[in-house]
Amino acid sequence: MKLKDKVLVVEDEQNISNFISTVLTANDFDVLVAQTGAEAVSMITSHCPDLIILDLGLPDMDGMNKHALPQGGPCVVGPADHRRFGAHARA
Fold it and tell me: Around Cβ 72, how many Cβ atoms within 10 Å?
């Protein structure tokens, strides 16, 4: 049996974390979800994820302070609010 790569999704918005989790699960990843920075710290130390997808705007932690997280896998940081970063502009 092949071990699946483990991805931790740190996102406080349920619809976004559900979407990301669904896509990752469909692509054969083992997905963990945390809604706060504190939950993420706990999951990183107990599950050692291979990759962390981190929201910039968490209720208890600024995603830009990812160095505050315990050492885990590589960390991908995404925008907290697409309107602030210009992603709402479409051609």
Answer: 21
What digits encode the pLDDT tens for the residues 29-38? 999 999 998 8
CA gap 38, 6 in Å, rounded: 19
A 10 A CB-CB count for 25 gives 13
Determine whether 26 is exposed, middle or buried from the number of CB atoms within 10 Å of its CB (0-12, 13-18, 19+).
exposed
Nearest CA-CA partner of 1 in 31, 37, 36, 30: 30
Cα–Cα dist 16/65, whole Å? 21
CA distance 69 to 45: 9
Find the length of the chain: 91
pLDDT score recorded for residue 3: 86
Which contiguous run of DSSP H or E holds residue 45? Answer: helix 37-47
